[in-house]
Amino acid sequence: MNTSMKRRTLLKVILLGDSGVGKTSLMNQYVYKKFSQHYKATIGADFVTKELHIEEKLVTLQIWDTAGQERFQSLGGAFYRGADCCVLVYDVNVPRTFDTLNNWRDEFLKQADPTNVEGFPFILVGNKIDVDGGNSRVVTERQAREWCASKGNLPYFETSAKENYNVDEAFLCVADIALNNEHQQDIYFQGISETVSEVEQRGGCAC
After folding, report:
1. Which of 22, 84, 100, 185 is the most exposed place for a label (fewest CB within 10 A)?
2. Structural domain boundaries, residue 131
3. What's the pLDDT tens digit per position in 94-132?
4. What residues contact 114, with CB distance under 8 A and at least 6 apart?
5. Model pTM?
6. At what angle do helices 23-32 and 167-185 cross, to 10 degrees?
7. Domain total of the chain
8. What CATH code is carried by the domain that includes residue 102?
9. Shortest CA distance to 93 belongs to which of 131, 52, 148?
10. Which long-range contacts link 73-82 to residues 24+ away (Cβ below 8 Å)?
11. How does pLDDT run across 122-170, given as a tens digit for each residue?
12. Main-chain dihedrals φ then ψ at residue 59, nearest 5 degrees
């Protein structure tokens, strides 16, 4: 029997983007393999967890799904602090959701106040590529990749939460990047409280 205890690492991941881009759908597709057309707008923030094995480690992703309405942005600081990665989500069919990405990124950095502002890891996700067979798409992949390049070559994924396309791949990249960021900061969370490790139920805050 292997007597070496696996180190459990908790990685906090924040999903940001305008209301309606599919943040809740992406999270639920990834964690529960479920999709619904009828999510209510997230109030405040909510989180779920998913356990992964990466590099012989037991990694727990704590994924925070945040409200996309601007009136909740003032709550951000409490939710953003301690994050290991931030996922910016937009809808490829709605240009306004792409145009606001700079605001979300800047607001996150201001409120999370990470130790390494320049090197903090972001990932960009263009969601809803399935809509109308892709015919209603407005924001091109080239535009998205140029935006990523201008921010230091951020990883970019195009997804469909509805069709479960590229969702696992995007979150695996999130986990890798978050783990790398956590290594750099040399911050380890030794064990997780029972309430968090048991969250297959939903947790979080509905302020």
Report:
1. 185
2. 12-200
3. 999 999 999 999 999 998 989 888 899 999 999 999 999
4. 83, 120
5. 0.82
6. 90
7. 1
8. 3.40.50.300
9. 131
10. 73/107, 75/44, 75/45, 75/207, 76/107, 76/108, 76/111, 76/112, 77/111, 77/112, 77/113, 79/14, 79/44, 79/45, 79/205, 80/14, 80/108, 80/111, 80/112, 81/111, 81/112, 81/113, 82/12
11. 999 999 999 999 999 999 999 999 999 999 999 999 999 999 999 999 9
12. -115, 130
**Closest-CA residue to 51 (of 16, 5, 9):** 9
Tokens at residue 161, please?
């939460």
Within-domain flag for 145: yes
Give a yes or no: residue 132 inside a domain: yes
3-state SS, one letter per residue, for the chain: CCCCCCCEEEEEEEEECCCCCCHHHHHHHHHHCCCCCCCCCCCCEEEEEEEEEECCEEEEEEEEEECCCHHHHHHHHHHHCCCCEEEEEEECCCHHHHHCHHHHHHHHHHHHCCCCCCCCCEEEEEECCCHHHHCCCCCCHHHHHHHHHHCCCCCEEECECCCCECHHHHHHHHHHHHHHHHHHHCCCCCCCCHHHHCCCCCEEECC
